[in-house]
Amino acid sequence: MNTRIIPITLALSDKEQNKRIEQMIAANHMVRLVDDDASEMGVLIYEPGDQVDDDLPHIIHALESGAAEDVYLAGNVANPEVLIRAMRSGIREFLQYPIEENDFRAALMRTAMRGSLTEDQGEKGKIFTLVGGKSGLGTTTLAVNLACCLNAQAPGRTVLLDMRRPAGEVPYFLDLKYEYTWGNLTEDITRLDSTYLTSVMAQHESGLHVLPGPSGTDRPDEHSLLLILEQLRRLYDHVIVDTSSPQGDSIPKEVEQANAIIMTLQLSLPCLARTSKLVETIRSYDPDAERRLHLVANRVTKNSTIGVSEAAEVLERKIQWIIPEDGDATLAAINQGTPLVIAYPKSPVSKAIHSIAKSLAPRPKKTRKGLSLPFGSLFRKKTKSSDKNDNLAGATL
């Protein structure tokens, strides 16, 4: 189902019902109230009044042109003539006064379902989530450099999301100055749209876009994070997420929603034990994760006492990629605040990461539809009708 926040525009002359539905909107994280002169209308909730004959053609035009995503009629009256005109024009909902919260939510669910069936079916961006059994495995190094490799193919089409807690380190790897973090988005998640998301993004000189994480704060709630991830997938071809090992009794949304889960490990018994436990944890909560899970052996030396094939046997699964040890170049790049693949492109580590990026098969760029359309003011103040008629609360027309 479409997970974006649905804008709501109110055109109600009944002040009491207007206030009532404003309270419902404020309490529902899936919708947000917009002014009638905003650049997007979303769902228009309209109360037919004395001017309905003048208003309805404009409202129908807004619906047919896409300026309005959906239209709900509301009021004490279910005027048969108006309802017939509405049904013929694609208006399907009528909210009976007093508007009940369950009726309002049901209408929104039907709108979201219809939107899911008719929205652009072009491919969304792919999420690649990088995770390790513990810190210190080189997961952030891999995330930063993998993002740079993918971005080099189409600058500005890759974003790096820093989800490490309690504080991420991505900006240090890029010597990146930034003003905003995803924490700013979660302060008022109802404002989240493509324009707002773009405005808080930091940009590296390579063209890579970065959404840093705040320091010392908890993770966003699951709903907020899902909305952020979905917006990122609409805007970018590749979403690289650097995250911590899952904690608690569920797997985080950035792992659950990932097209590929890239798990880093090192060839030591304690690390293999942690990796095995993490793999089983993810499997237990998401059986589909098995096909999306890829193991990366990092910092592999020729004289390691545990070989890659032995580690694969211990884990009972294939290790897809191997990154050799090159501590000097890696540390030098980190201290410079320059990605390794840029500072030392001939390093064996850089070559290995380029190989990983290539195997992840980036998609050709496809044009995505915008999330809103401009429109003019389509209604005026209406006089409240006092007629009472059929009880069609929450009805689908």
From TrEMBL:
Entry's InterPro entries?
P-loop_NTPase, ParA/MinD_ATPase
Q: SUPFAM superfamilies, alphabetically?
A: P-loop containing nucleoside triphosphate hydrolases
Q: Which PANTHER family match?
A: SEPTUM SITE-DETERMINING PROTEIN MIND HOMOLOG, CHLOROPLASTIC-RELATED, SLR0110 PROTEIN
**Name under which the protein is recorded:** Transcriptional regulator
Which species is the source of this protein? Answer: Pseudodesulfovibrio sediminis
